[in-house]
Amino acid sequence: MEKFLLISTSNELVRVAPEHIVCITSDGNYSTLIQADGESRIVSYQLGRLAEMITTQLGVRGNDFIRLGRAVIVNRN
Residue ranges of the chain with pLDDT lower than 50? Predict the structure, then answer.
């Protein structure tokens, strides 16, 4: 069964396949999710909270992501 990262934004519930996420960057209380197709979404979660969501929602697939410092999470693939 394929797993997705579910993120609630101010006006929608976003479902993103982990392989489509390139990186997530931090900007204070907001984060920008950058996808492989060039689309980016601003979400109102801090990077630490998104790291927790990746771990809990994706399980083993969450190991594909690594946090580099305080400002970015990247997809190893």
Answer: none
- Residue 70 and residue 58: Cα distance in Å, rounded? 21
**Could you tell me which of 22, 14, 32 has the C-alpha nearest to residue 64?**
22
10 burial type by CB count under 10 A (0-12 exposed, 13-18 middle, 19+ buried): exposed
What per-residue confidence (pLDDT) applies to 76? 95
Predicted local confidence at residue 2, as pLDDT = 84
Could you tell me if 67 and 73 are in contact, meaning their C-beta atoms sit under 8 angstroms apart? yes
CA atoms within 13 A on the CB side of 52: 5
List 25's β-bridge partners, or say none.
32, 72
Answer whether 5's CB lies under 8 Å from 15's CB: yes
